[in-house]
Design a protein that fits this description.
The strands form 3 sheets. The protein has an 8-stranded mixed β-sheet, with helices on both faces. By secondary structure, the protein is an alpha+beta fold. The chain is built from 14 helices and 16 strands. The structure holds zinc ion (2 copies). The site of one zinc ion (ZN) has 8 residues, from α6 and α9.
Length: about 425
């Protein structure tokens, strides 16, 4: 079994690795144009950070966390999402003491102990952004514009913006009461888990995947009907700005997101089959939840890299291909080896992708290999070439050859 990776994990290599590199580059490059700075936080954190941050009653914390006790008897958890760690870092390093907002992005692995039959990975990767320190709906607009740009740059067309508001803590109190009344009236149709969780956090019943619960949830009261003036205005202003920017959206009162920290805006980019490409929103209570001395608004989103690849494949979008070697340098005779390798390195220093022989193959076998790796040009360097200072440069596509000076090869690549 030692040649098999643990269940729910995957190795990145070949075409998928290249895709991931391109995706991450697009995300990073676009985030940088928004003056968003990269942050890397540890892969593991104290368990309590997620219990407090993500929320005790969420499925993530209750069933899906990779939690273990380390040798120092501390409870440690592999991060199930990117937000809590970024906010913890913001607080630990007093980033609230410098001019706000703080705009951070990250590319991180995230770990969830998913059931194997769900087909979901136990380690997946996320690109995410957090903007901390502003209450304005402009922040959500900024996040949405950013995701829209990334989606466009990737060439995806099927993901549409869905938005909703789940209100602040105050709105949620009124709403939770109405929702609980409704759920209690339909209690006999709920699954055992929901019967229990509706008493602790009725909103979580809305995420339940059980058929019976889904049926009840369909007609449940909606958060949007219970917004106070502040939350209503926030949502109206957000919609107005999106319209002003010609960003199409759909109000989808079914979105509540699976984590406890959301307040006011929640949004998703969803395809026509209901698959979510990206999810995010505002979380004004999260900073306070992690550090009671602070009360700072924040918002953000996360986008799964594997999910992006799934969308690219589904929509038949091809990303730019990985560059092929510009030149293959064949070596003839062991006496020429060191000098030929020197020429390889000179060209690499000039930025060309250059490949050569490491197996002492015959010249014929080397040319076969050059063909296989799709090198654009090839040369063979032996003692004769080194003496004359000239090589025959072969265009591997059309077979044409050209005699060129060794120190001028780069001019022809
Ligand atoms: Zn409110
Ligand atoms: Zn249920």
């Amino acid at each position: 079994m030692i040649t098999q990776a643990p269940r729910g994990t995957q190795d990145w290599y070949g075409k998928d690795m290249h895709k991931r590199t391109v995706i991450e580059k697009i995300c990073r490059d676009i985030a940088k144009t928004f003056n968003i700075k990269e942050i890397i936080t540890p892969v593991f954190e104290h368990t309590v950070l997620f219990q407090r941050g993500v929320g005790e009653t969420t499925d993530v914390v209750q069933k899906e966390m990779y939690t273990f006790t380390d040798k120092g008897d501390r409870s440690i958890t592999l991060k199930p999402e990117g937000t809590a760690g970024a906010i913890r870092a913001y607080l630990e390093h007093n980033l609230y003491a410098i001019p706000q907002p703080i705009k951070l992005f990250y590319v991180t692995p995230a770990f969830r102990y998913e059931k194997p039959q769900s087909g979901r990975l136990r380690q997946h990767h996320q690109f995410g952004v957090e903007i901390v320190g502003s209450k304005s709906p402009m922040v959500e607009v900024e996040l949405i514009v950013l995701v829209t740009k990334i989606i466009k740059e990737l060439g995806l067309k099927d993901a549409k913006l869905h938005i909703n508001s789940i209100g602040c803590k105050d709105c949620r109190q009124t709403y939770n009461k109405a929702l609980l009344d409704y759920l209690k009236a339909n209690e006999e149709c709920l699954c055992p888990t929901c019967k229990e969780r509706m008493l602790k956090n009725p909103l979580r019943v809305l995420d339940c995947k059980e058929e019976g619960c889904k049926k009840i949830v369909k007609d449940a009261p909606r958060t949007i009907e219970y917004l106070d003036d502040e939350c209503k205005n926030h949502f109206e202003e957000l919609k107005k700005m999106l319209e002003g920017l010609n960003i199409p959206y759909e109000v989808d009162t079914g979105i509540v997101r699976g984590l406890d920290y959301y307040t006011k805006t929640v949004f998703e980019f969803v395809d026509s089959d209901g698959f979510t490409l990206c999810g995010g929103g505002r979380y004004d209570g999260l900073v306070h939840e992690i550090d009671e001395k602070q009360d700072i608004p924040s918002a953000g989103f996360g986008m799964g890299i594997e999910r992006i690849i799934y969308f690219l494949e589904k929509e038949g979008v091809e990303l730019e291909e990985e560059s092929k070697p510009s030149l293959y340098v064949g070596i003839m005779g062991s006496e020429a080896k060191v000098k030929a390798y020197g020429i390889v390195n000179d060209l690499r220093n000039k930025g060309f992708i250059v490949e050569t022989d490491y197996l002492d193959r015959s010249v014929k076998a080397q040319m076969k290999y050059a063909n296989k790796i799709e090198a654009k040009f090839s040369v063979v360097i032996g003692e004769n070439e080194l003496e004359s200072g000239e090589v025959s440069l072969k265009n591997m596509e059309n077979g044409e050859t050209n005699t060129v000076k060794i120190d001028e090869i780069d001019k022809y690549l």
